[in-house]
Amino acid sequence: MNPLDGILLVDKEGGETSYETSYDVVKKVKKALRGSNVKKVGHAGTLDPLATGLLIILVGQGTKLSSYIMSEKKKYSATVTLGIETDTLDSDGKIVQERDVPILSREALLNVFTAFTGEIEQTPPAFSAVKVDGVRAYKLARKGEAVALKKRRVNIYSLKLTGMDLPELTMEVECSGGTYIRSLAADLGRTAGPGGHLKALRRMAIGPFLARDGMSSSDIVSWDKRMKDRIIPLNEAIPDMREVRVAPRVASHIRCGRQPTWEDLGVDAATRSMTTGRLKMVESGQLVAIARIERDEEVGHGEVKLERVFG
Known about the structure:
With 311 residues, this protein is α+β, with helices and mostly antiparallel strands. It has three domains: 6-72 and 208-236, Alpha-Beta Plaits, CATH 3.30.70; 74-200, Pseudouridine synthase (2-Layer Sandwich), CATH 3.30.2350.10; 242-309, PUA domain (Archaeosine Trna-guanine Transglycosylase, Chain: A, domain 4). Helix content is 22%, strand content 36%. It contains ten helices and 19 strands. The strands form four sheets. Strands 1, 2, 3, 4, 7, 10, 11, 12, 13, 14 and 15 form an eleven-stranded mixed beta sheet that branches.
């Protein structure tokens, strides 16, 4: 296992004068890693060019953790401008509608926020990476083609109004993976009356990881000890997943593709009774595999099925 396998927390810069895409950050890390024997670099959830904040870079076998990290809760700080709607639902797009912003009370806005708290249906923006018949939606939208995306269910765990200086308002959002804050901003604006768009966005957290703990994207120039020390090992990259320690012999068998049994894992009765969920298998502090638990009605408890193996 390469000692650089893991994740790197980056605080992506952006704003009105700095257009840096998530892929730009990935390319910078790839360039810095040249000669380190790392084969793959990716990220766990893109940020729009204008957005700032936490971008989790996946290094080496860390790319196998993408789906697990992307499914974590996200926390954002967002600024919404009321009265102006754009085709991209953010300040980077063309204005498609302008309306006067009426006097809105804090209470009225909080009532709107309540309607968007909990499990809601949301349509992704036409200018997004969602695929339509195998083609990214934004590519069709840029050509002027009509893009009809299906609604999806997302969860808004918390929605707080943190500032109000009309026509702008600021809010903090804690939400499930797959939530589009641009869509949320536009929907909030329409429900409030005058419409609106997302002016600014900062991702503050993904699961247990915080933007303030990341290195600035502008500091990624060349690989050095400081950057190497920032790599979070594979096991620590998924700290909330239930852990089972395995013996070296069992770890070797798993890495050769053998499905482990509960007996191999030597787990307690409480863990063996799991009928759903995931386990991470660790040997001497090293992540060996991630398995999902599938219920087996005949035996009355869950069966272990390998999903990802790390070697």
